[in-house]
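Hi F.,

I've been meaning to write this up properly since the lab meeting, where we talked about keeping a consistent format for the predictions we share between groups. The idea is simple: the sequence comes first, exactly as it goes in, then the structure tokens exactly as they come out, then a line or two of notes. No screenshots and no reformatting. I'm using this chain as the first example so we have something concrete to point to.
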Amino acid sequence: MINFRIDGRSAAPPYLQIVQQVRQALRMGVLDVGDQLPTVREVVAATAVNPNTVLKAYRDLEREGLVHARAGHGTFVLSRPPGPPPGTHSRLGRSLARWVREARAAGLDDESIESLLRLTLQAAPEEEIA
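Output, unedited:
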């Protein structure tokens, strides 16, 4: 089961945070095809967002073909986003966590780590072309 967290300081609106968290849970294997998402009432109780916000998020996910709402039964995962299987994400996530620990041990703070990651991501496509 997924537990939504809404960050009031985030630039992303609450409905988009819910959408992003569902996509991430599908990529990481936390949610799988056939799983039921929390009811709107459960999400509202846990996050204190407006029910329409949750409904908007669930509708967006349904338009993407990731979930399907069954009247009176709930909202269920229909498919995963395109990309590698969840095992790949988990394996790479563990590798990245080790790298972050190593970077912190070397004295890098979060801002430095984020900058290095951004630079690496920007350079990666250029290196592949060359």
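Notes:
Helices lie at 14-28, 40-47, 51-63, 86-105, 110-129.
The longest helix spans residues 86-105.

If this format works for you, I'll send the rest the same way.

G.
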